[in-house]
Design goal:
disordered N terminus; 331 residues; 10-stranded mixed β-sheet; rod-shaped; 8 helices; alpha+beta
Amino acid sequence: MSKHLIIMNREFSEAADGFYHLCPICEAACPIEVDGKCVNVVQVITRAGLESIASALKDAAKAEGWTGILGDREHWSLTADKATDALAWFREFELRDDGLWGKPRKTTLGKELIDGGTLRGVSPVLEVEAEDGGDISEGSRVVPIAIDSIGFTNRPRLKQFMRPVSNKADGASKNPNQPEDNMKLVNKALGLAENAEEASAISEIERLKEEIKQKEARIAELEKADNEKAADAFVAENKEKIADTDEGRASLKKLYLENKAAATDLVQHLTLVVKTIAPVAPNKATKQPASATGDEKNVITNRQVELYVHTHPGVSHVRAFEILSDESEAK
């Protein structure tokens, strides 16, 4: 199933007789966003395709109230947080030997920025579909079917298909307000050639993102293994304080993995229980240890506490010991 998407064609072009070179006849690689992911495709711009677009534009121009194709600044009209002021409106189009040309009617702001040299190129935003009529994916060949808008820009793409730009008189000085092109700095930071295309930079960024994702996953695996090892060691160190069952060991390990502080606090309470019941008072009447007179039945073991806590959800170990002690004395 075909899917229409917006693709930016950043190209320098020459103004001649009031017309700007919008789309060259060519094939070239470029990035495109599909379902939130950047993929590399090949633009296939043919004369037949441009004839269809030019014909549709001429028909649109005949309609009453048609304002033309918007000419904005750096494609700002495609974003929600940028100004959408028009720099020009394109209403006249011609198909020439080297591609599609368009003539803008500049606004006051457009004359200031374009004629003044601040913005020196044009970049049409093309609506495209897959050449084979299917879905667009990595490596797809796409063909333009319409022009959505035209941006005035300083970022060239596909320069080899275009003529040199000169919107200012020969010898005119560079506009000091023209924004500096940081693409060379980006390419340098990515380890690419200084004059690498934007598509190459985007592709390298996507590769680095995937590499980081894989490394983060590996770190998570190592951390999990370390935590498992530490939990097993913790259970082994405190095996005398818990029920001698697989369930008891698994419960303590699970608690340690989920909340180390809570597990540590638990075994500390169990230690207190052991210290509390360890001394055996002598029987005053016989001067013999309680164990010799049958009082050992009053001794509360850790396993009894564990069993009580297990069968009475919400009761702490300390409270369980107190309850069992009271029950034992009552007997």
